[in-house]
Fold:
Amino acid sequence: MKKHLKQVILIASIMMLSVVSAFAADIAIQANQLPQNAQSFVKANFANDQIVYAEQDRQSYKVELASGVEIDFDKNGEWTDVAGNNKPLPTKFIPAAIVKAVESKYPQTPVLEISKEYLSYKLKLGNNREVYVDNNGKIVGDKLD
Structure:
């Protein structure tokens, strides 16, 4: 009976530690603690915008800029999501084929958010459209958001 009780206590302790570590995953960091790729991305694409908050979890980083732009990076510092807080984003970091596909269908419509998906990009546009574009620049989905 004591052996069984010890096993139950051990299992419960392990489960509690797992839950605690899952909730404690996001840690605030300084901007200079971001991977160099992430720092370079912000400097190149948002030069006049200051990082006001940065955090790290096990597999990613998140940055918030003074303008309200939020950027998610993977563990290597490559961007995965950029949200403009309903303001137009610069497009120079978006692959040219993606920009060309969206601009040809929706000229002069700003990109408000972009996310890298598995084999495509998801863009939210200023005309309330959500557009999916594959890596080759072909629109594969388009809906009203």
User: Anything to note?
Assistant: Strands lie at 27-29, 51-56, 60-65, 70-74, 79-83, 111-116, 120-125, 129-134, 139-144. The chain has three helices and nine strands. The longest strand covers residues 51-56. Residues 103 and 109 are 7 Å apart (CA to CA).
